[in-house]
Design goal:
Layout: H1 2-19, E1 22-27, E2 31-37, E3 45-54, E4 58-73, E5 76-90, E6 95-108, E7 115-124, E8 129-131, E9 133-148, E10 151-164, E11 171-185
Antiparallel strand pairs: 1-2, 1-11, 2-3, 3-4, 4-5, 5-6, 6-7, 6-8, 7-9, 9-10, 10-11
Length: 186
């Protein structure tokens, strides 16, 4: 039975890019993250899933669901989304998760074709947190440059923090640091 489960998992992961809009890979000094988004910027919805491995055997998974649309920030073309990010994490002595509410915005700079800036913020109070998490904040800022039509490189900052239910460890940064990566569009 294990062989068939593993085979289904491998085939599912291999088929994911067929249904994906983009694949995002990023690194910090202590972690590596992969993110797949299933709809493009022209869609009214965005659905994505990601996995982060952080040094020290910390595993972090996320599922994103946002309503998105095109707008303008001043005269700058912008794609914005409002929705939720579900995050689960696990390490040796603790685990937890949360459903954070928030959004993102990507601002394109017309005078510098290919250059864009993205910011995303999601927050989950204790009522939307579970396990050993009491609340959670997820922040990501990045500057991107589209090198070719279907690929871009980026650099930025990622911050994922949760407050724990334990009195001795009230706060832990699950993932934090300067990041660099690439995004491939399908």
């Amino acid at each position: 039975m294990k062989v068939s489960r593993v085979s289904v998992l491998v085939l599912s992961l291999a088929a994911a890019p067929v249904f994906a809009s983009d694949l995002d890979l990023s690194l910090t000094n202590d972690s590596v993250k992969g993110q797949v988004n299933f709809f493009g910027n022209n869609s009214d919805l965005q659905l994505g899933a990601g996995y982060t491995y952080h040094e020290g055997s910390r595993h972090i998974g996320n599922i994103d669901f946002h309503a998105q649309g095109r707008t303008a920030l001043g005269n700058l073309p912008t794609t914005a989304g409002i929705g939720m990010r579900g995050i689960v994490w696990d390490q040796d002595r603790a685990d937890g998760g949360a459903v954070g509410l928030g959004g993102f915005a990507t601002v394109n700079i017309p005078k510098a074709p290919g250059l864009s800036f993205t910011g995303g913020l999601h927050y989950a109070p204790s009522i939307l947190s579970f396990g050993d998490s009491d609340d959670m904040t997820s922040l990501e800022l990045r500057a991107s440059y589209r090198v070719i039509r279907n690929a871009e490189v980026f650099a930025g900052y990622r911050y994922l923090n949760t407050e724990l239910d334990f009195p001795s460890n009230p706060d832990v940064n699950l993932d934090e640091g300067v990041m660099a990566g690439m995004k491939i569009f399908f």
